[in-house]
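Hey team,

Filing this mostly as a record. A colleague (T.K.) asked me to run one chain through the structure pipeline before their review meeting, and I want the input and output archived in the tracker in case anyone asks later how it was produced. No errors, nothing strange. Just documentation.

Input sequence:
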Amino acid sequence: MIALVPTFAWFQMLFDHPGYVGWMVVMGFLVAASCALVGNYLVLRRISLVGDAISHSVLPGIAVAFLITSSRDSIWMFLGALVAGLMTTVFIQLIHSRTRVKEDAAIGITFSTLFAIGVILISVFSGHIDLDLDCVLYGKLELVSTGADFVSVAGREIVPRPVLVMALVTVLCAALVSLFYKELLVSSFDPGLAASLGLNPKFVHYALMCVLSVIVVSAFEAVGAILVIAMLILPAATAYLLTDRFGLMIAISLVHAFLSAMFGVQLAFAIEVPAAAAMVVAGTGMFVVAWIFAPHHGLLRRWFGKVDDAGVDPVAGEL
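Output structure:
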């Protein structure tokens, strides 16, 4: 019988399956970290659901790429999904800017339509499209070290290819965020100020969406198109509750990403569930803890704050 609270024997599990568990944690962390780096800006811009739209739109891109090339080679799948992700961003902006429809409605229209097109394509051409929908939608983090090719050096297997690709994407994302930190920060908080300083807020937005598309496309093989949205929002949202400084917010989101990967893999082994879903549950658990105990924006702080405000001496709360 599965215990309601599983035993967390992390070091024992890592000792029993060092390579298998280790690569799962590394891949999970890389996916969550890259998503968190961009997710911080999405949360600040209040466009978190754009990641949801792009993650759903990769399905028609993958289907079309397979129909054109008749190949399941990762490069063609990547290019098809990337083009679909970029088209999603353009369609959202077109609907929002050329009609009276608000951005949230434009996001819903775009991602639901493209996702439906992908389902129709796979249903109509099911005899020609050999795709594992479970992998596309829910991910296969468990296969990162057993079902993937390894990069070899001098005849020795060094690292699984998906892990290497995700590591390169994460490093690229971190480099871009570091290099254009001020531009991204100003355009996220105040596009008008950014324009007065000579920046182009629209260009910064589309550049950010391009990076987001690359991350989503690179991550969906591991965590799936549906679950990747949680990786984009949970670390940033948790950090947003814990600090008012953006630099520290990025650091906290990366810590959240690591803990989500570690505890998620442990939870997956303990109750025998998909690791990607377990990572999301672990991340949500940490968000709930932050929501309750955050020093300035937590539920307890808000409750005690109201008690202080109700006191006789209002100056006492200032001291």
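Quick notes for T.K.: Strands lie at 150-153, 156-160. Residues 47 and 104 are 8 Å apart (CA to CA).
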